[in-house]
Write a structure and sequence with these properties.
In chain A, 35% of the residues lie in helices and 24% in strands. In chain A, the strands form 4 sheets. In chain A, strands 9, 11, 14, 15, 16, 17, 18, 19, 20 and 21 form a 10-stranded mixed β-sheet that branches. The termini of chain A are far apart. Chain B is an alpha+beta fold and 588 residues long. Chain B contains 15 helices and 26 strands. The N and C termini of chain B lie far apart (72 Å). The chains are: A alpha/beta (471), B alpha+beta (588). Bound molecules: adenosine-5'-triphosphate and magnesium ion.
Chain lengths: 471, 588
């Protein structure tokens, strides 16, 4: 390992160094400043005689006299099952007062892509206990399903609710402790506030979830560039636990918006040609390299389910961050400002939400035979009711037909009964679907054109329609 | 991919710099587009720029830890694919490495580096049947025999392009590997089942024809309103979650093509797994054999190296051309061409090329049109006719169609299926917007539909278009005053339009029956709605109030035709039409 004192340029998070031996792309670097501090970085570009380094912990205090050490290897995460219960910083160093971590293995954090041929299609229903998700945007094991939110909205409460309540129904009956030990949560925080971090930690501690969690914390006042490695450390740990140790791992990454800002910052420092709204042109590829590290693998017990959280700048879903995310993930859960101000908890808007893996995870033998139909019909009916709301504002309810009024009532009840449930209530899938039927029964039978006739016969409640008609 | 066959010893080059997928090397003896092996691990790459002594290479594998000073080895041959039996029922990465073989060789579910594998099995033997006799003269491109590649497809063995051609001096039936000679010519030329072809070059053809036959898709809105021709080109742009992949997969399953080449270009791993899982079990509606028997999959997912994403569309279309040369109708889907364009942009920016619109390279439009130009209905050099229909998904940022990839694609393709986030959000699937979409093949395909499906196919379609147009205008009024304020005949139009949308345009790709709708059924559903319209108009004219008309209990059954099995449709619709007529006439 050779040391250099040949820094030629420092700009933003980047340091340029002259070298006289070949340095590998992506290699890890340590820079020691005059006052003895060590900063870590990674090789972004390498040419004979010259490399560009991205410094994770910020370049403050680095000068041309600082010494640079090339460690001759790419960034690694020390992995072991003992990580469960531990709290690490955004670079993977323990920040709790626990013992030293003795790694089982050190793994490259740039994970290799899963061979698409070796994947197993995810289709095990995860019951989150949240009706708007289980009923209409079902999550399955191995899915990547982000929460699209806005600043100030209760996405963290929702994420915590999911982490607390998530279970796989078939296994519930068997009860035993080993079911629990198979389940692990990896929490990767990027640039969240200390307050938000406390919210998560308190909940983890209160519910005992910490024991089966690994927490990576990069807070708002931690270096921004470090955010580009935090999720990779988290996912490397997840892969180890899932595919070597057989855990079902739930990975929560928050806030992806901060991650993308860090990418933009590095791109700008490198004077790259920016893509849309100043974000790097390769942001799709970069995000895909995180989000695709979810799934199941043939012949392996475990799985990685990802719930990344992002706040949409100006609540704009066409902003590059939610846009590129949506193009990679298998759906999205939308947290809505309007519903939030109506006091709906959790304020999930099902219309723009979607779970693309829902279809194979639901139905006879998995959840219930009527699940698909109920979900489709709830969508269609809520969409129709929503649509009519604009019109009502103009012409008033009286000017609308009985059918239209029916749909308006439906939309209202749907929000109040189905979406609204509070953060501490967990509903099983039967309960969720039964509430769905209560609502659908407000509509005349012939309107239910998305549900098979047998299911209508079995579940439709004649009394509800009568009730409404009598109003 | 094709194994380098050139064994001449070459001077090695030396890596000068590494920046992501782009590596430069000095002292490398190579031509443009040559395949080279980079670094100690021998990562596969392709020469994309030569400037004096400096050669720029795009590397098809992850370049972590690769360092300047490591060797680069040239192969002397351009990026090529192996063409021969065994491509069907296969799944490849972007440079034609079989993913199942890679799994085996790497012994892991994760893709390792520096492992190569031939595109087709070199050991396997195939039962060859000659189609020419000794003494017959053959030219480049001619078919000399065939092997049963899958239950659905006979793979034709052809004289490779570029051969001089001559008299066949020896040819015999028997079991051969793809590398063994199956025929010899008097010129001394030998013919094997396996050919190599550089992916960036179109295979030769005689002539392009104007397509006149539809590629029937089994999708009502496509066959009914915006049909694609065999040999045609189509684009499906739409925001995320609007149904591009579902549409592409439906086409791959149900289009009446002989061969399907499905390119997953920079999209999700699980989507490819879904195809691998589903296709072996689903029957091809034409032959009844498993769909996989006519399908070649290329999976270069979003987390696989970006350079291989750039090459995967070329790998796919070259394979498609090979089957076209045999006289087959090939349908090629690329999901998504935007990821391909972005890969071009990424490489281009690493080369510090002058960026064009939104950072895409100036040659974006040219590359797109070169690709779509390789589609068409062709007279092949061997006298057969074959076609490639190319269908590209486009993923515009923010769903905004004014961006460069969508716009440049629109200038080339003749069919445009515009996906709409509003429709998708309402779960109106396929979310194809009927106002914005078009097919320039419509008129030239009408004679086929008239002859093969129904005489009044074009008239019936026009009727539906008129109703939808009128509905569009009326909806604007409804937004202001509500439906009940409209005159009764207009309320009827709204109702009829609703059935066109719900019972005809919508089609549930996840429903066992509804997902595939033969053109005859497409015709019958619309016919039933039309006959309801006619009967209802008569009733309205006879003074029956609109609520009574729409309230008859037969009408909702219109929505159930789609899910009625094909062999029961005629009976179901006959009965439904009779009931509608009877119930409406009883009102006056
Ligand atoms: N014809 C259809 N029938 C039923 N559902 C559909 C249909 N088309 C689309 N969908 C629904 O829409 C979802 C999204 O579709 P799809 O995955 O094809 O979107 P996409 O346009 O490819 O998105 P992306 O750009 O992110 O890949 C599907 O998972 C499915 O739930
Ligand atoms: Mg898609």
């Amino acid at each position: 390992m050779k040391e250099y004192q040949t820094i030629t340029e420092i700009s933003g998070p980047l340091v340029h160094v002259e070298t006289d031996e070949p340095i590998g792309y992506d290699e890890i670097v340590e820079i020691e400043t005059g006052d003895g501090q060590t900063r870590r970085g990674q090789v972004l570009d390498t040419a004979s005689g010259h490399v560009a380094i991205q410094v994770f912990e910020g370049t403050e205090g680095i000068d041309t006299d600082s010494s640079v050490r090339f460690l001759g290897e790419t960034m690694k995460m020390p992995v072991t099952e003992d990580l469960l219960g531990r709290v690490l910083d955004g670079s993977g160093n323990p920040i709790d007062s626990g013992p030293d971590i003795v790694p089982d293995e050190r793994r490259d954090i740039v994970g290799a892509a899963i061979n698409p041929y070796s994947r197993e299609y995810p289709e095990d229903f995860i019951q989150t206990g949240v009706s708007a998700i289980d009923g209409m945007n079902t999550l399955v094991r191995g899915q990547k399903l982000p929460i699209f939110s806005g600043s100030g909205l209760p996405h963290n409460d929702l994420a915590l609710q999911i982490a607390r309540q998530a279970s796989v129904p078939e296994e519930e009956g068997e009860g035993g402790d080993d079911e629990d030990t198979e389940f692990a949560v990896i929490f990767g925080a990027m640039g969240i506030t200390a307050e938000e971090a406390n919210e998560f930690m308190d909940d983890f501690e209160r519910t005992g979830a910490l024991e089966r969690s690994v927490v990576f914390m990069n807070l708002a006042d931690d270096p921004a560039v470090e955010r580009t490695v935090t999720p990779r450390l988290a996912l490397t740990t997840a892969e180890y636990l899932a595919f070597d140790k057989g855990y079902h791992v739930l990975v929560i990454l928050t806030d992806m918006t901060n991650y993308c800002e860090a990418l933009r910052q590095i791109g700008a420092a490198r004077e790259e040609v920016p893509g849309r709204r100043g974000y790097p042109g390769y942001m799709y590829t970069d995000l895909a390299q995180l989000y695709e590290r979810a799934g199941r693998v043939k012949g392996q017990e475990g799985s990685i389910t990802q719930i990344p959280i992002l706040t949409m700048p100006s609540d704009d879903i066409t902003h590059p961050i939610p846009d590129l995310t949506g193009y990679i993930t298998e759906g999205q859960i939308l947290v809505d400002r309007g519903l939030n101000s109506q006091g709906i908890q959790p304020p999930i808007d099902p219309l723009p939400s979607l779970s693309r893996l829902m279809d194979d995870g639901i139905g006879e033998g998995l959840t219930r035979g009527d699940h698909g139909g109920v979900s489709d019909q709830l969508y269609a009916a809520y969409a129709e009711g929503e649509d009519l709301r604009d019109l009502v504002n103009i012409v008033g309810r009286e000017a609308l037909s009985e059918r239209d009024n029916n749909y308006l009532d439906f939309a209202e009840e749907f929000e109040e009964q189905f979406v609204q449930q509070g953060y501490d209530t967990s509903r099983d899938i039967d309960e969720t679907l039964d509430i769905g039927w209560d609502l659908l029964s407000m509509l005349p039978k012939p309107e239910l054109n998305r549900i098979d006739e047998e299911n209508i016969e079995e579940h439709y409640r004649e009394d509800v329609e009568a009730e409404v008609a009598a109003d | 991919m094709s194994q380098a066959t050139d064994t001449t010893v070459r001077e090695d080059g030396v890596i000068e710099s590494v920046s992501g997928p782009v590596v430069t090397a000095t002292d490398l003896d190579a031509k443009m587009n040559d395949v080279v092996y980079v670094g100690e691990d021998g990562l596969m790459g392709e020469v994309i720029e030569i400037e004096g002594n400096l050669t720029t290479i795009q590397v098809y594998e992850e370049t972590s830890a690769v360092a300047p000073g490591e060797p680069v080895e040239g192969t002397g041959s351009p990026l090529s694919v192996d063409l021969g039996p065994g491509m069907l029922d296969s799944i490849y990465d972007g440079v034609q490495r079989p993913l199942d073989v890679l799994e085996d060789k790497m012994g892991s579910a994760f893709l390792d580096r520096g492992v190569d594998a031939p595109g087709i099995d070199l050991e396997k033997t195939w039962e060859f049947t000659p189609e020419v006799e000794e003494g017959e003269a053959v030219e480049a491109g001619d078919i000399v025999g065939s092997v049963p590649e899958t239950p659905s497809i006979d793979h034709k063995v052809m004289v490779p392009p570029g051969y001089e051609g001559g008299e066949v001096v020896s040819i015999e039936p028997g079991d051969f590997t793809v590398e063994e000679t199956v025929a010899e010519l008097d010129t001394g030329e030998e013919i094997q089942m396996r050919q190599e072809w550089p992916v960036r070059q179109a295979r030769p053809t005689e002539d392009k024809q104007t397509p006149t036959e539809p590629l029937t898709s089994g999708q009502r809105i496509l066959d009914g309103l915006f049909p694609l021709a065999k040999g045609g080109t189509a684009a499906i742009p739409g925001p995320f979650g609007s149904g591009k992949t579902v549409a592409q997969q439906s086409l791959a399953k149900f289009a009446d093509a002989d061969i399907v080449v499905y390119i997953g270009c920079g999209e999700r791993g699980n989507e490819m797994t879904e195809v691998i899982d589903d296709f072996p079990d689903l029957p091809d509606p034409q032959t009844g054999n498993a769909l996989m028997a006519r399908t070649c999959l290329i999976a270069n997912t979003s987390n696989m190296p970006v350079a291989a994403r750039e090459s995967c569309v070329y790998t796919g279309i070259t394979i498609a051309e090979h089957y076209r040369d045999m006289g087959y109708d090939v349908a090629l889907m690329a999901d998504s061409t935007s990821r391909w364009a972005e890969a071009m942009r990424e490489i281009s920016s690493r080369l510090e090329e002058m960026p064009g619109e939104e950072g895409y390279p100036a040659y974006l439009a040219a590359r797109l049109s070169q690709f779509y130009e390789r589609a068409g209905y062709f007279d092949n050099v061997n006298g057969t006719e074959g076609s490639i229909s190319a269908i590209g998904a486009v993923s515009p940022p923010g769903g905004d169609f004014s961006e460069p990839v969508t716009q440049n694609t629109l200038r080339i393709v003749k069919t445009f299926w515009a996906l709409d986030s509003d429709l998708a959000e309402k779960r109106h699937f396929p979310a194809i917007n009927w106002d914005d979409s078009y097919s320039l093949y419509r008129d030239q395909l009408d004679p086929w539909f008239v002859e093969n499906v129904a005489e009044d196919w074009p008239e019936q379609r026009q009727w539906a278009i008129d109703i939808l147009d009128e509905d569009g205008e009326l909806q604007e009024v409804v937004q202001l005053v509500g439906k009940d304020a409209l005159p009764e005949d207009q309320q009827l139009t709204l109702e009829v339009a609703r059935f066109i949308k719900e019972a005809w345009l919508q089609q549930n790709a996840l429903h066992d029956v509804d997902r595939y709708c033969p053109p005859e059924k497409t015709y019958r559903i619309l016919g039933a709605i039309q006959s309801f319209n006619d009967e209802a108009t008569d009733a309205l004219n006879a003074g029956v109030p609109i609520d009574e008309i729409t309230g008859i209990d037969a009408v909702p059954r219109l929505n159930r035709i789609g899910t009625t099995p094909d062999d029961e449709v005629d009976e179901f619709v006959d009965e439904l039409e009779a009931d509608i007529e009877e119930q409406l006439r009883s009102l006056y």
